[in-house]
Amino acid sequence: MRKELIGLDHLMISTPDLPAIRACYLRLGFSVTPWRTNEPMGGGKTGGRGGNHLVLFRPTDDRMTNFLEFAYADPAHAVPYMRDLLGRRPALAMIVHAATDLRSLDEGWQAAGFPPCLYYELDTDYHDPDDGTVDRIHFRVLVPDAPRGPLAFNACEVMDRSHYLRPGWIAHENGAEYWAAATVVSDDLAAMRRHFGAIYGIQPVPEGPVSVTMGDQTLTAVDAAGFAAGWGDAARRADGSLAELAVEVRVASADTARAVLTRNAVSFRDEGSRLIVPAAEAGGIVLVLAEAA
C-alpha cells in the first residue's frame, strides 16, 4: 500500500437532479447539507447550477473526513472533465482518498504509469445559505484533468475539518454513523485489477471481485452479473436499469433506522441487522443500512 494514502475518504456520486437527491436522502433519515456551488461543475461565477449536496458522517480516522458527495455538472457551464465525469446515471464518479505528502504521491502514481496530476489548494469561507453560519474550507488536492482508467480517483489533504464536523450535519435521524463499504460495477475486471494495483501499489487477487480495504472502509468492484445476483430486485433503478453502485452505511441501531424508513413509507428489504434500500428508493444506488457488530 502506498505510504501516502491514509484511507478511502469520500465517494463522489453522480446525480442528475440535486433538489431531488436532497429530498430523497432527507426522506431516508439523513441530514443533508445545503446546495453549494462548484465552478468546475458549472456553478458559481459560471452562472450555472453545478454543485453538490453532502451527507456527512463521523470520520473513523482523525486525519480524514467521511461522507457521500452527490454531485451534478451543469452541461452548459461545467469544464469538460467534470461534465464527462458526472454526465451519466447515478454511479461512483470518483473515489477521493485521504492522503499526506501529495507531491510524493503524485510521483508514485506517475511511476505507475499515470499522467501528472494538477495540484490545487482551496482556502475559502463557506456561507451557509440556510442559517448564515460561516465556515472555513481548507484543503489541498491532486486533481486529475483527464480520464485515468476504469475508475476516476484523486487524493485530498484536509487542513481544517471543522466544516465537515458540524454537529447538526453529522447527526442523522436514522442513526447513521459512517460509510463503510462501496461496491461498483465494472465491465472489465481485469482492467480494474490493474488499475487498483497502480493506484494502491498492491497486487490484487487474480480472480473474482477486486477489493481494497483501508482502515474502516472497503471499495470493491464486481461485474454486472455479480452485482445483480448479489442484490436481486434491489439492484434495479426506478427506470428498470441496473444500478452501478451499492453503499453500506453503518448505523447505531437497525431498529432506529427501520422506524424512520417505515414512517416515511420507504420500501426496503429487512434482513434484521441489515436494511437494504433498493436503488429505486435511494436515488439510483443500492443503500445498505447495517448495524455495527
Characterize the structure shown.
The protein is α+β, with helices and mostly antiparallel strands and 293 residues long. The protein contains seven helices and 15 strands. The chain has helices at 18-27, 80-86, 102-111, 167-170, 189-200, 224-231, 254-263, and strands spanning 5-14, 36-37, 51-56, 67-72, 92-99, 118-127, 134-143, 153-160, 176-185, 210-214, 217-222, 245-251, 269-270, 274-277, 286-291. The strands form two sheets. The protein has an eight-stranded mixed beta sheet, covered by helices on one side. A seven-stranded mixed beta sheet has the order 10-11-9-12-15-14-13. A hairpin with a 6-residue loop joins β6 (118-127) and β7 (134-143). It is globular, with a radius of gyration of 18 Å.
Q: Strand fraction band?
A: 25-35%
Q: List how many beta strands DSSP finds.
A: 15
Main beta sheet strand tally, sense and closure: 8 strands, mixed
How much helicity do the residues have? 10-25%
Mean pLDDT: 93
Q: What is the global morphology?
A: globular
